[in-house]
Each structure stands twice: as structure tokens, then as C-alpha cells.
Specification:
The chain has helices spanning 14-27, 40-53, 74-85, 89-108, 111-123, 236-272, 284-314, 319-344, 354-363, 372-390, and strands at 128-131, 147-151, 154-165, 172-178, 188-194, 200-205, 214-225, 229-230, 274-275, 278-279. The chain is of the alpha+beta class and 399 residues long. The strands form three sheets. Strands 1-4-5-8 form a four-stranded mixed β-sheet. Strands 2-3-7-6 form a four-stranded antiparallel β-sheet, with no helix packed on it. α8 (319-344) runs antiparallel to α9 (354-363). It is globular, with a radius of gyration of 22 Å. The structure holds coenzyme a persulfide. Coenzyme a persulfide binds next to α6 and α10.
């Protein structure tokens, strides 16, 4: 399979096919220049506005708030991210963060909170962010230490968040803090906090290898109305996990987009580069490399769209399928891009070359929204649990 042939897969309906064709027509030529930017914050702001005006952010929220489909459709999110990421890491990022940053509102916000925030997320008028990680609680979310204590009609937040995408440019943050109903993961709640709330400040802008707006936040005596609580007090860990169950699949799709771009670059190079009296593509070693790249990409696509389909069509969270998709797609994309760099030889590491940019861009996807090791934990635990539950069922083989 090549190009957009995979759209014929039974995971998709005609709406997905039409949306993807329209997105590609809209994005062609438009997004290429977004990568070499001096001010990533400003570029992301205008990308969010453009994506909003183009109607693309409608895929980040449900229909009642301006969205394209009844509920957030993970296959649409994935097709959007894959096709944006093929062209521009920042455009993909700007799109994805509107969804991730408002996902907890879609899942657990009151009708009032949804009505206040989601339509403007959809139009691109307000920029969203998801604030979960802390200096001492990244993979171990249950250990987070930011506190929220109830005082009358407010919760008062104190603590620090870090690695917050859109930090510094967001208009609001979905923040997770310890409210203490129970120890560990059962004593955490989610809140929507407007960026201009007194007591909330950006404490550090974090430079990274593939520049994105990323910051640490400090909360000091930051008073948030009780009405901004997301779901029940104490349910925040589950709300955060449910949000990640939706958006981790889309990380897999973004990795797929980067990998497809790298394969395209690798093929163009292999078919044009002359050496030893033939082209690079004539060497069996190159053909083996291309075979690994192409097969890895299709494996990733199958796992990614299966995870999206499980959620959209079976109505299940698909935590196991999501974890498999995220792990395989991000790890595979890293290998595919590395092979593309190798096909370019010295030019592959020259600053500004597409494969050099992809090499920097892919790395963080193996870490954020649950590192590969966390995905292994989820897959291993769930597989063991399934075995233990099923092992006494009559009729299973090997009994
Ligand atoms: N959906 C709904 N509920 C979930 C869930 C999910 N996907 N995953 C776990 N839960 C529930 C569990 O059922 C359990 O509920 P009870 O307390 O009622 O039994 C509770 O949440 C705690 O679950 P668990 O014991 O599995 O939590 P752990 O502390 O062991 O953490 C991992 C599990 C490591 C998987 C989790 O902390 C995680 O995903 N970490 C990575 C976080 C991340 O992605 N950070 C990046 C932030 S965005 S850049």
C-alpha cells in the first residue's frame, strides 16, 4: 500500500475519506513554511487561528459545541494528525493540543464549563493546554503533589507543573491537583484554570530539540471557582487517563505522518542518487532498508487505526490497543526516520534538511503522553489480567 490507499481500509467511512481529501487540498503548500520560525509561540497562535478558520478544530470537540461529529471521533483525530504531521510538526502540534488541552472538559466538564470553553476551542479563539506532569511526577501520575484545598466557593491551588505544551500561550489549562479524598490516584481532581488567574505564572520557558511552546507553571494561592471542577472531586486521575486514552492514539498517528514523510524522502533520494554506476535504489541493501521502512509504517497504521476504530465503533476505551499503537508507531517512526537519515549520508544531518528536522521532531513522541516504558507496563499488566480472568474458561486451547 502506498500514498492514501489505506483510506480504503474498513476502519473508515466515507466521511473520513472526504475529510482527508479536503484537508490535504487545504494544507498543500500552506504549511511547509511553518517549521523555520523564530517565534514558535506566535507561529502556533496563528496556526490555531488558521485551523479554526478552516473548520479543522471541529474534530477536537463534540457536535453540541460546534464539533463535526456527535462525539470526538478518534479516527478523524488520527487522520488529521497523520496528514498534518506529514507536512508540519508545528501544525500537527497546534491541532493536537486544542484536543488534548480541552479533552478533560469534553469528558468530565459540567454543561456550563463545556459551553464556556469548547466552542472557542473549536473556533480557534481560545488556546487550550493539559497540565498534568510535575517535576517529581511524570510517569507516576498518582504521585503528583500540587494541592487544591477547598475554601468556600473556591479551590486554592499551590504547586508546580512542568513540560506543559502550549505553556505560556494557552488561554486556559486543565490542571490536575491533589484534593486528598484518598491517598494516591484516588485523591486527585481536575480543574479548568484561566491563564490570567492571579497566582498562576509561567515560571520557565523550556527550549527543546524540536522547538514547541513548552513551559513550567507555578501556582501560588491560585483561587479557582468550584464551578471549574472537572467531574467529581477525587476522580481526576481517571479523567486524565481517559483523556490520554483518546489522545495517545493520535500521537501514534502523528508518528505515522512523520514516518511517511521520511519514507517519501528516502525513496526520492534512493531513486535519484547515483553511485558505483547505478542508483542507490538498485542496491539490495537499500531495498532491504526500504522494505523495513514500508512494512513498519503499515504495521503502525494498522495498530493505530485499529485502536481508533475500537473506541469509535465498539465504544470501548481500548486502553490496551491504544498502548500498543502508541508504542509501536512512535518506536517504528524513530527507526524509519533514522534509516532515512542514513540514506542521505552526510546530507541527512545537515541543519534544515527535512530528514534532519524529522529526526529531531520524532524523539519526544516516544516520551510524552506516556513513555514507551509506560505503554509496556499497560500492555503487560492488561495481558496478564486477561489471562488470569480467562484461564479457567472451558473450551480454551491447551487445557
Ligand atoms: N481509564 C480509566 N481508569 C483508569 C485507567 C484508564 N485508562 N487507567 C487506570 N485507571 C484507574 C484504575 O482502574 C484504578 O482505579 P481504582 O483506583 O478504582 O482501582 C486507578 O485508575 C489507578 O490505576 P493504576 O493502579 O493502574 O495506576 P498506576 O498508579 O499504577 O499508574 C500508569 C498507571 C503508569 C499507566 C499511569 O500513571 C500513566 O499512564 N502514567 C503516564 C502518565 C502520562 O502519560 N504522562 C504524560 C502526561 S501528558 S504529556
Amino acid at each position: 500500500m502506498s500514498g492514501q490507499d489505506y483510506l480504503a481500509w474498513p476502519f473508515f467511512d466515507d466521511g473520513h475519506r472526504q475529510m482527508t481529501n479536503e484537508l490535504n487540498a487545504w494544507a498543500d503548500g500552506k504549511l511547509a513554511a511553518t517549521e523555520d520560525t523564530a517565534d514558535v509561540g506566535e507561529t502556533c497562535r496563528s496556526l490555531v487561528a488558521e485551523l479554526g478558520q478552516g473548520g479543522w478544530l471541529r474534530h477536537c470537540v463534540g457536535k453540541a459545541y460546534g464539533g463535526a461529529r456527535e462525539n470526538i471521533d478518534v479516527r478523524s483525530l488520527c487522520l488529521m494528525r497523520e496528514n498534518l504531521a506529514r507536512r508540519s510538526g508545528l501544525a500537527d502540534f497546534a491541532f493536537a493540543m486544542q484536543g488534548l488541552g480541552s479533552g478533560a472538559i469534553s469528558i468530565a466538564g459540567s454543561a456550563d464549563v463545556k459551553a464556556r470553553y469548547l466552542p472557542k476551542v473549536c473556533s480557534g479563539e481560545r488556546i487550550a493546554a493539559f497540565a498534568l506532569s510535575e517535576p517529581d511526577a511524570g510517569s507516576d501520575v498518582g504521585a503528583l503533589a500540587t494541592t487544591a484545598r477547598r475554601e468556600g466557593e473556591f479551590y486554592v491551588l499551590d504547586g508546580e507543573k512542568t513540560w506543559i505544551s502550549n505553556g505560556g500561550i494557552a488561554d486556559f489549562y486543565c490542571v490536575f491537583a491533589r484534593t486528598g479524598e484518598a491517598p494516591g490516584s484516588r485523591g486527585i481532581s481536575g480543574f479548568v484554570v484561566d491563564a490570567d488567574t492571579p497566582g498562576l505564572e509561567v515560571s520557565e520557558h523550556i527550549p527543546v530539540i524540536a522547538p514547541h511552546p513548552l513551559a513550567s507553571l507555578r501556582f501560588r494561592n491560585c483561587r479557582v471557582p468550584v464551578a471549574n471542577l472537572l467531574g467529581q472531586a477525587g476522580s481526576g486521575f481517571k479523567v486524565a487517563m481517559q483523556t490520554l486514552d483518546i489522545f495517545r492514539t493520535s500521537v501514534a498517528a502523528a508518528a505515522l505522518g512523520f514516518a511517511r514523510h521520511a519514507l517519501h524522502e528516502g525513496l526520492a533520494r534512493s531513486c535519484s542518487r547515483k553511485m558505483f554506476g547505478q542508483t542507490l535504489a538498485d542496491f539490495q541493501l537499500t531495498q532491504a532498508t526500504i522494505a523495513d521502512m514500508a512494512t513498519g509504517i503499515d504495521s503502525s497504521a494498522l495498530l493505530t487505526y485499529r485502536a481508533a476504530w475500537v473506541r469509535d465503533c465498539l465504544g470501548e476505551p481500548g486502553t490496551l490497543e491504544v498502548a500498543m499503537a502508541k508504542m509501536v508507531s512512535t518506536e517504528t517512526a524513530q527507526q524509519v526516520i533514522d534509516k532515512a537519515v542514513q540514506l542521505f549520508g552526510g546530507l541527512g544531518v545537515k541543519s534544515g534538511m527535512p530528514v534532519e528536522r524529522l529526526y529531531r521532531e520524532i524523539r519526544a513522541l516516544r516520551i510524552y503522553e506516556g513513555a514507551t516504558e509506560v505503554q509496556k507496563l499497560i500492555i503487560g499488566r492488561q495481558t496478564i489480567k486477561d489471562f488470569q480472568r480467562e484461564q479457567n474458561r472451558p473450551g480454551l486451547p491447551y487445557k
